[in-house]
Amino acid sequence: MKCILLALILCLPIITNAQHGGYNSDTGWSRFSMQDTVPQPGANDTCLVFVSNRHFLRDSLRFLDEYVDTSHLNYFFLRKQGPQWQVFQTTSLSDAMELLPIRRDIVVYAEGMGKIFTNNVERAYLMTTQYGVNVVMFDYSSINTTFKPAKNFKFARTNARISAGQYFTLMKDFQAAREANAPWISGERLTLFFHSMGNIILRQMMLTQHYTALNSYPFVDNVVINAACVPQRDHIAWVKDIRFAGNIYIHYNKNDIQLKGAHLLTFQDQLGEKIHQRAPNAHYINFHDYVGWKHSYFLNFPFSKFQLSDDMKMYFSALLRGNAVSMLPGKNTAPLLTSKASTGRD
Question: What value does the mean pLDDT of the chain take?
Fold first, then answer.
């Protein structure tokens, strides 16, 4: 029975991708076209910035493939024109950010298992349109469409780990822009959002990179550790060292079906699943009563029966805009957050 449950859980991202949109089909990829000249976005255009360590094959239909290159980062500016996306390569993060038509609060978004480039574009698009933020997607390969589910689980975890150094480079770029008061970040709040296996990147960065310089002051407003597919057991050791952010939020749900699969595979409680001990500098948010078995409960997805309540939308909107949040807003004002200094078990 456990084997059947595990197989179903591992297949969930792949089944979902196949049912909704044909992300890896020729038709899906034909919606994206590389541009030789800089697009001129209007104020009403939806635009994204992507920072990717995928192999870049400019002349291929699938111009960002399913493998990572840890020696190089590529920067892209994306502009939506009807159903089509124009994609322009820039030489740096700042060059891409300066093309965004509207100055807004910024979210650096790292996704979990099961995403090719086109998946990540859809998720970044949903985040920017639903919450009114400028999204910078850290785009790494978290699935190979030729692999079976169990092999993809290992593939995605490995790629997240080896991408930590490049994410660290990206953080240094953001810190430098904040220190220089670059126009595209001046006066805007900055949130780092990690979902599922995307949290492996953060954990590995804190365990392996020389992050002391990042901790010189909190240039990030919020770090959001959402439905984290990383071990719960040792998380205090690395979370307590995150001092480059004003607030840290850890979201968990004991019935998260995909983290139950990760638990079965790794024989470990996952941080986004169960909390036994708490880092003194983090807020812990229990979503069990609000989302049931859901794993991706921060966006409203097309074709999904699950939709965020108004209170949850208000919560995530405030969080992703870099605000400090102390309770779920709305009529039921019972605190959603546990005190930073709290200890104990759930």
Answer: 90
Task: With respect to residue 154, please indicate whether it lies within any of the assigned structural domains.
Answer: yes
Alpha-carbon distances, residue 245 vs 35, 184, 225, 343 (angstroms): 36, 19, 12, 21
Q: Mean of the pLDDT values across residues 256-284?
A: 94
Distances (CA, A) of 17 to 14, 79, 284, 336: 5, 23, 30, 32
Q: 181 is written with which tokens?
A: 């008061």
Sheet containing strand 84-90, strands side by side: 32-34, 84-90, 74-81, 47-52, 134-139, 106-110, 190-195, 220-226, 245-252, 283-286, 337-338
pLDDT digits (tens, 9 = 90+) for 86-112: 999 999 999 999 999 999 999 999 999
> Which tens digits make up the pLDDT trace of 57-87?
999 999 999 999 999 999 999 999 999 999 9
In a domain, 335, yes or no: no
Domain, as residue range, for 191? 103-321
pLDDT tens for 205-247 read: 999 999 999 999 999 999 999 999 999 999 999 999 999 999 9
CA 143, CA 149: separation in Å to the nearest integer? Answer: 9
CB neighbours of residue 60 within 10 Å? 12
CATH number at residue 170: 3.40.50.1820
H/E stretch holding 6 reads: helix 2-19
